[in-house]
Amino acid sequence: MYTLEQLSLITGLTTRTLRSYLKSGILKGSKDTGSWQFTEQQVFEFIHHPSVRPSIRAKHHAIVYDFLAGQDQSENEMCILLDRTLEPGKAQEIADFFCNAAGALSHIRFAFSYKAGKAHYILKGAEADISRLMQEFYSR
Q1: CA dist 129 to 29, 57, 92, 118, Å?
Q2: What's the pTM value of the predicted model, to 2 decimals?
């Protein structure tokens, strides 16, 4: 299950935008415990919706473009693009790892997409944080 904040982190869309998608019915979820929760299937359907996909793609590209343009670089930064051929379950497991880790480190930007067996991950942030995160990823 994913929270609204985690979905925002994965897609790059603001929680306000996500709430608009909830109101319109494009994004489906449940609010049983007082906060929005989304299943893997609901997230998958949302990020592949034809009305949503271009916005998510633009947000993901912006992470890389901002890095290349040197936007907001007050410290040493690193941007990692990781593409892997994976089954959907394994791709989601890795996305969950990065999502949880990036959520704990507030200055990391993270994006994930999956299409036709290819998982795409983008991580951008302070060099020390990204290095530590990647070391943790490869040592698991």
Answers
A1: 32, 24, 22, 25
A2: 0.79
